[in-house]
Design a protein that fits this description.
Layout (H helix, E strand, L loop, with lengths): L1 E6 L3 H18 L3 E6 L2 H5 L8 E5 L7 H9 L6 E6 L4 H5 L6 E4 L4 H21 L1 E6 L2 E6 L3 E7 L2 E6 L3 E4 L3 H7 L4 E5 L2 E4 L3 E4 L3 E4 L2 E4 L5 H15 L1
Parallel strand pairs: 1-2, 1-3, 3-4, 4-5
Antiparallel strand pairs: 6-7, 8-9, 8-12, 9-10, 11-12, 13-14, 14-15
């Protein structure tokens, strides 16, 4: 999931941007969580790292987009900012807050999609590189999400399978799953698989890396739908 803040004070423009975003989301099989703010002050008061991407109008009452970006940038260096403005000269000011890009109103959907997808690819790369901390029987371990092939429930503990090792963990699977992103799907009560590692799906099993795992008949359709969507996003 990619968390998007749409910061705009003009209702027709909000509706237009939501239409464009929803169409792109449908066409590109994205999972965007879009939150609308109608002034920069409310947006900039959100906790740091609440969003991955901000689409910021510049000319707004209370606090304009440039001021809001400057305020939030002091606390959040990772947020990707794209300004939406009527005036091209504001683009130069955007460098002061490390804005990724800007787009002129009226928004051209084709051009906007190009810029949005560029931002999303950057966010996805960061998410794949994100490390999570896991308390194992050997102590705390920090793993990149893309290092995990699958997680297996064995007796009363978890076995976390990577390409190079198997780590034991006593955390409930639900707790670990909450730390992981949408690449991971629970295809069976005993298995949580990273769909990046799925090589082949059979009638009752799935090959994940070098291993063949069970797929629940009750979850197979949902798993296949999720896998199809995931593969489509990767093309």
């Amino acid at each position: 999931m990619i968390r998007v803040a749409l910061v705009e004070d003009y209702l027709p423009q909000i509706q237009r941007m939501e239409e464009i975003l929803n169409q792109i989301q449908h066409d590109e099989k994205l999972n965007l969580q879009i939150t609308v703010f109608q002034d920069g002050e409310t947006f900039s008061s959100m906790p740091p790292h609440s969003f991955d991407l901000a689409l910021l109008d510049i000319q707004m009452d209370k606090m304009d987009g440039m001021q809001a970006a400057a305020k939030i940038r002091k606390q959040d260096e990772d947020l990707i900012i794209i300004f939406i403005t009527n005036l091209a000269q504001y683009a130069i000011q955007g460098y002061a807050v490390q804005a990724m890009d800007f787009i002129l109103k009226p928004v051209n959907p084709v051009l906007f999609k190009e810029k949005l997808m560029k931002a999303i690819r950057r966010i996805e790369r960061k998410q794949k590189e994100k490390r999570i901390s896991i308390k194992t029987t050997q102590g705390w371990v920090w793993l990149k999400m893309d290092e995990i092939c699958y997680v297996e429930i064995v007796s009363r503990h978890l076995e976390i399978h990577t390409d190079t090792q198997v780590l034991c963990c006593s955390e409930p699977l639900q707790n670990l799953q909450a730390l992981l992103d949408e690449r991971f799907f629970r295809c069976h009560v005993a298995y949580l698989v990273n769909m990046d590692y799925v090589k082949q799906v059979y009638k009752t099993t799935v090959r994940v890396g070098k291993d063949e795992l069970l797929v629940s008949k009750y979850r197979r359709k949902e798993f296949m739908d999720a896998l199809t969507k995931h593969v489509g996003r990767s093309l």
